Structure of ABC transporter ATP-binding protein:
Amino acid sequence: MSVVRLEHLTKTFPGGTTAVDDLTLTIDDGEFLVLVGPSGCGKSTVLRMIAGLEAVSGGAVSIDDEDVTDWPPKLRDIAMVFQNYALYPHMTVQENMGFALKLRHMDKAEASEKVNDTAGLLGLSTLLDRKPAALSGGQRQRVAMGRALVRRPRVFLLDEPLSNLDAKLRVSMRAELSRLHQRYRITTVYVTHDQVEAMTLGDRIAVLDRGRLQQVGTPDELYREP
Ligand code: ADP
Ligand code: ADP
């Protein structure tokens, strides 16, 4: 079953740049899809249209077979993480991660169980009382991911989430992302320009070039020697 369906999705910015050109792609339930391609090829614009942060110029976005093309971001059951994680500076890790649950009036015990579970997977259990200023960059990015996932959104979007981290940290964070995905199986679209990242993380990889879909397939299908 497909969760996200993009049909003939197109974005032309005022001024005339066509950032996304007739993109048709479906993302299955529980799938980890990586959208890969060089800087400027339209990856962020695709994510922003899925999230409802950017209006489409043509085509449609559906989630669970419902056309959400004109829905505001709030009504889409989506969480998004960027490379510049914006944590609430005055809140602890626990409060940052639990904030979305609090807004939804979730029972305190249930909320703290969810936060603890996600924090455990991300190696944040001993840092729950810290504020963002007292965390490393990698720890902050983990909190941003935890905060996005703690309410178990239908769709998880990540835009180059590791690109501000050093090489060693990027490698270990990949393993953590895989673990999170194994655990929660949330339908994910992950944007990167890094092919190694795409290969290690993706169930399938969609290759974008100048706004157009070039190829889509499993890592094996795309990178196997001919
Ligand atoms: P990527 O995420 O692959 O780096 P983007 O989606 O950010 O690519 O950008 C795709 C193209 O659209 C680029 O040429 C970029 O300059 C252009 N673009 C992105 N956002 C805007 C905007 N708000 N106004 C005009 N052009 C934009
Ligand atoms: P990314 O890291 O996703 O490639 P950019 O640094 O290209 O992001 O863009 C950051 C912001 O600037 C985005 O909101 C994007 O829409 C906007 N933007 C990018 N290119 C242009 C452009 N040519 N004209 C106006 N806004 C742009």
Strands lie at 2-12, 18-28, 32-36, 58-63, 66-67, 78-81, 155-159, 187-192, 204-209, 212-217. The longest helix spans residues 167-184. Residues 12 and 18 are 4 Å apart (CA to CA). The mean pLDDT is 94.
